[in-house]
Amino acid sequence: RLESARAKQDTFLHNVDTAQTRLTLEEASMESMTEVMQRITELNIQAASDTSTSMDRRIIANEVRALRDELLKMLNTQDVNGDYIFSGSKTRTPSFMRGADGIVEYTGDQSRTSVNVSEVRTIEINTLGSDLFSSTDFAKLDELLTGLEAGDGQQIRESLNGVNEITDKLTVAFGKMAGRATAIDSQRQALEDIDLRLQQLL
């Protein structure tokens, strides 16, 4: 009976390992996205200044375009098995794809993945791409690019709200992911304590 209990604990610990690996990868990707959005915000503020010339704004547009493309790559992060981590259950499909019309759309689904970490507890381990970005968010970045390329100070200034909204959305998603990571850490500690007691009883 004790051996059976230990076998169950081993299964739960394995699930916790899986969850921690997944959340570590999510955390790294989301931190990078946040850093990219911070840089885009800095560039937006710089370009919004009346002292920025049309040439300055075109140079900034080149960097913003590269950063936008980098965000798309980050949203399509894959794990060691080649699975797309932000696509829900459609793990063989990129989370976001750019259509022929230039519009970027979320191509994953809304499935949440949960793992059993005890007899009575399951924990969600995945963030969906749609929690992080949307077609509208990419359109906001494209509007900023249009303003930068046209040297339109008013449009550039108006884009700042949209850029800030994207960053806020990422911050909320990061907080939820961090909460799941904390729950997994505390569950690991509890499982290791139980495993130690079972070993002492055997």
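Above is the first protein from milestone M3; the second protein from the same milestone is given next.
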Amino acid sequence: VTTASRDEIIGLDTHLKKLENLVRGYAKGHSTPNIVLVGPGGLGKTLSLAYIIGATEDVKPLRFFLMQRGLLDIPALAQVNGYKPVGIIDDMISEVNPKVYNMMKQQLEGLQDEIFGRVLVIISGNNEIWKDLPDPVKQRLGGVVLEYKPNPESNEALLKLFCKKFKVPYKPGYLEAVKSDNLVPRQLRDYVRAIGSELAGKK
């Protein structure tokens, strides 16, 4: 499973702390609502999921499961004994299909409350997908919502991070170049990667 360290994530300290506290509380037996990470693509939702998997490696009862295609694996997870399962639905945008959501609704209602006493579900998706989910599904899946928004104040730190990663000498002009474009972290990464490729081609 892919993990990420705190050093790789800029500008999301509050979200990461909240996410980690909730997951650790769940592992200790606390009543924990499902967690929804909502925001445009490229802001660090998937990276946050990778972080929480790595950050809680010391919590032995936790087991993370990637759940796709309308939570087809949920019934099996609900039967797990001996540890605390965490189901992850990453990037709901890939699941935009009314039939899938209808199936989710039927499965969740069929299980009633059993799963929510046995499995913590963490979901990431963009605002439009979450907003358009049928209310019964949203009510079942919803809980703590962490909203991800662009944070231009983090751009300089992000550019320096990506420059280090791709071995590109940082220049203040890079920050000036992206100021007017409202780029999200993923786009900043691709911007620096392109600079690295261009510099490599000139050698």
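Note on the second protein: The two ends are 36 Å apart (CA to CA).
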